[in-house]
Design goal:
binds pyridoxal-5'-phosphate; 13 helices; 36% helix; alpha/beta; globular; 4-stranded antiparallel beta sheet
């Protein structure tokens, strides 16, 4: 059983088989040189110390080889994205043919909707969760307008019940029973950014497909955080970024999943470029378009290698650890965080993230009674980097790769002293 003592936290860190990974990251420090308690890996993951050498390799090859680097670099640039596919597929539980690293997250969401949002006069609506990430909401609204529909009429929201924060599968079933025939696309954040609720992707996909809808997920808060099993979910597509739990640096390239069942469908409409074209004849330039099979067939451009180098550094580490060990520690660490917060007093705080470990990743969203943003300022002053959401929620993500049991213990001690002040 968990214990609310510093000694216990220290001991857990000693027993933790992943504790050595923390040393492989740059941990931000305060102005006195003390390490901060960094709990915002769900917003921007920390930098692996190895990232620099991966990027330096490409800078050096560019300096020494110029254009020849496309074929002669240590990691030839023409094929660079292929070096990422297998590990990325493992991270999200997909087959290599289903995964590609390209563009940015919201861009990928649009490109996926070009192919998988195919509205008709009667079936044109898009269903999203009511507290979807703003970018996702803006993206689907603009798709509705792009196809000539009204963005209010065309949007169906899956909402929590009055007085609740989390979404219930039952309510999704009801919506689909009533409006299923009018819904073209279901697009849900696989792990909700605000509550941390991890949805049952397979259940949602099965439901959607039964009603004739295509189903896609934004896994920005899922990739590198939970076992997504995208292939088995049966989802038509998924998109995610790599700068949150995948530690690949601000604005780095994003991931995209297209289910194997669409891999060889050349009739699927899509936006294309020379990088979606057959690799053998890509440089003949005058060939008729010949689309690549699988997710690769959605690429447009030759990609930014420096960003991919940072992704490679991170994925090599994920490959090394394995998502199973990671989620095991994640459950223990987040469970400890939850335990300590509950000790602190149910009267003062409420955790809105689901209690069941299978329905969340490492993030806990903590609602603090009568709190305002000054609480966030005080936490920051105390060396805790967390995320504030109006009106009264602190989001904290103890990331299993680099956060420790002592981080979590110290965070709750500081929160306690601020609240009792
Ligand atoms: C972080 C995040 C985004 C950000 O989109 P970018 O295109 O990478 O700027 C979008 N959607 C969700 C659900 C996110 O968590």
């Amino acid at each position: 059983m968990y214990k609310a003592t510093r000694d216990y936290a220290k001991q857990q860190d000693k027993l933790d088989e992943l504790s050595t990974y923390r040393k492989q990251f740059h941990i931000p420090k305060d102005k006195h040189g003390n390490e901060l308690i960094y709990l915002t890996g769900n917003s921007l993951g920390l930098q692996p110390k190895s990232t620099k050498s991966y990027i330096d390799q490409e800078l050096e090859d560019w300096a020494n080889l110029g254009v020849e680097g496309h074929t002669e670099a240590k990691n030839p640039w023409l094929a660079y994205h292929e070096f990422l596919t297998e590990s990325m597929a493992k991270v999200v539980g997909a087959k290599p043919i289903e995964v590609i690293v390209m563009n940015t997250l919201t861009a990928n969401l649009h490109f996926m909707m070009v192919s998988f949002y195919k509205p008709t006069k009667t079936r044109y609506k898009i269903l999203i969760e009511s507290d979807a990430f703003p970018s996702d909401k803006y993206a689907v609204e603009s798709q509705l307008r792009h196809h000539g529909f009204d963005d209010k009429d065309g949007l169906i929201l899956w909402k929590p019940r009055d007085g609740e924060e989390l979404l219930r599968d039952k309510d999704l079933e009801t919506i689909l029973k009533e409006h299923g025939d009018n819904i073209a696309l279901i697009m849900i954040g696989g792990v909700n950014y605000y509550t941390g609720q991890y949805f049952d992707l397979k259940k949602i996909t099965d439901l959607g497909h039964q009603h004739g809808c295509t189903v896609g997920f934004d896994c920005a808060h899922g990739a590198g955080n939970v076992e997504l099993n995208l292939h088995d979910s049966g989802a038509d597509f998924a998109v995610w970024c790599t700068y949150k739990y995948l530690n690949s640096g601000p604005g780095s390239l994003a991931g995209c999943f297209v289910h194997e069942r669409h891999a060889h469908n050349k009739n699927l409409n899509r936006f294309t470029g020379w990088w979606s074209h057959n690799k053998q004849t890509r440089f003949n330039m005058r060939h008729e378009f010949d689309v690549l099979p699988g997710a690769e067939g959605w690429q447009l451009s030759n990609p930014p290698i420096l960003s991919m180098a940072a992704i490679k550094a991170s994925l090599d580490m994920f490959h090394d650890v394995g998502i199973k060990k990671l989620t095991k520690k994640s459950k223990a660490l987040t469970g400890y965080f939850e335990f300590l917060l509950k000790e602190l007093g149910e009267g003062m705080i409420k955790i809105i993230t689901p209690e069941h470990p299978e329905e969340r990743g490492c993030q806990l969203s903590i609602q603090v009674l009568n709190a305002d943003k000054t609480l966030h300022h005080k936490l920051t002053e105390a060396g805790i980097i967390s995320d504030w959401r109006e009106p009264d929620v602190i989001r904290c993500a103890p990331v299993p790769l680099y956060n420790s049991f002592q981080d979590v213990y110290n965070m709750v001690e500081k929160l306690k002293s601020i609240l009792n002040d």
